[in-house]
């Protein structure tokens, strides 16, 4: 078993919080890699124990290139409270890191912390995609086969068919397309057997949205906001009885976030 496989196994363990052991294993690794640095980043910035953070940060700084060291210092100087949706895209967006491997390690680390305190951790099962995430989408996404909620926001060159191939098999029940240009949404999205909730917020441009003739009978919550020009809207009327909630509105300000 390689050191990367061993560390991944320790992070994925449902029983024990092995973060301190992981830090020392990375410190003693004979060969460093973007994967190991990516696993170390969330520990150095987000672990709740100050001593663990300081130890991880010290090792990370020693192992990092001058460019990555500068990136680390920039984020240390911000002195902000990191959150999954807002700071993470910038913290892990660096050529020497694998964005999604860092996000995965963060989620596993935080999962252990919430388990220890018996707190619910809904963010664990959600995944956010902005431009920073999209640029790194080919490394590490396969580890997120536990994700139920996907939020895609303002990605300029979003390739929906490719994305659906990447998340094939994920148990996604909620999809949000927030200001994403969608020339045509693949039928594969509408046909997802696990999908229950589907939300669209129109971008400023390219507001056409095509509603297919057929889509999963399991979709019972649909929101379309921001003044889309709907093609095939009659298909929604034909299937209206299946919806627990159907909202079509021009003003995105009335978008409800109640599921």
Concise summary:
This protein is α/β, with parallel strands linked by helices and 259 residues long.
SSE topology:
Layout: H1 3-12, H2 19-27, H3 34-46, H4 50-63, H5 66-78, H6 88-91, H7 99-116, E1 126-129, H8 131-134, E2 149-153, H9 160-166, E3 174-178, H10 187-190, E4 197-201, E5 208-210, E6 221-225, E7 229-231, H11 234-238, E8 245-249
Parallel strand pairs: 1-2, 2-3, 3-4, 4-6, 5-7, 6-8
Helix pairs in contact: 1-2, 2-3, 2-4, 3-4, 3-7
Shape: elongated
User: Radius of gyration in whole Å, from Cα?
Assistant: 20 Å
Helix segment count?
Answer: 11
Nearest-integer average pLDDT: 85
Helix content: 25-40%
Strand order, largest beta sheet: 1-2-3-4-6-8
Q: Report how far apart the termini are.
A: 42 Å
Taken in chain order, the helices and strands follow as HHHHHHHEHEHEHEEEEHE
Instruction: Tell me the fraction of residues in β-strands, as a range.
Output: 5-15%
User: What composes the largest sheet?
Assistant: 6 strands, parallel
């Amino acid at each position: 078993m390689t050191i990367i496989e061993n560390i991944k196994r320790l992070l994925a363990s449902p029983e024990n919080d092995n973060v301190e052991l992981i830090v020392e294993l990375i410190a003693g690794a004979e060969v460093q890699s973007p994967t190991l640095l990516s696993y170390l980043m969330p520990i150095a910035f987000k672990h709740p124990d100050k001593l663990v953070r300081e130890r991880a940060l010290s090792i990370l700084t020693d192992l990092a290139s001058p460019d990555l060291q500068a990136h680390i210092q920039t984020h240390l100087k911000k002195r902000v409270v990191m959150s999954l949706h807002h700071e993470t895209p910038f913290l892990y967006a660096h050529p020497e890191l694998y964005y999604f491997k860092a996000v995965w390690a963060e989620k596993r680390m935080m999962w252990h912390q919430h388990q220890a305190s018996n707190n619910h951790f809904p963010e664990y099962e959600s995944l956010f995609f902005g431009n920073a995430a999209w640029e790194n989408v080919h490394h590490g996404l396969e580890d997120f086969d536990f994700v139920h909620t996907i939020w895609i926001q303002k990605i300029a060159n979003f390739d929906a068919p490719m994305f659906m191939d990447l998340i094939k098999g994920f148990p996604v029940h909620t999809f949000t397309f927030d200001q994403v240009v969608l020339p045509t949404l693949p039928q594969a999205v509408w046909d997802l057997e696990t999908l229950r909730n589907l939300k669209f917020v129109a971008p400023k441009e390219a507001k056409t949205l095509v509603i297919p003739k057929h889509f999963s009978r399991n979709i019972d919550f649909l929101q379309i906001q921001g003044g889309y020009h709907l093609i095939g809207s009659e298909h929604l009327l034909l299937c209206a009885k299946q919806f627990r909630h159907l909202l079509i509105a021009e003003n995105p300000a009335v978008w409800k976030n109640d599921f």
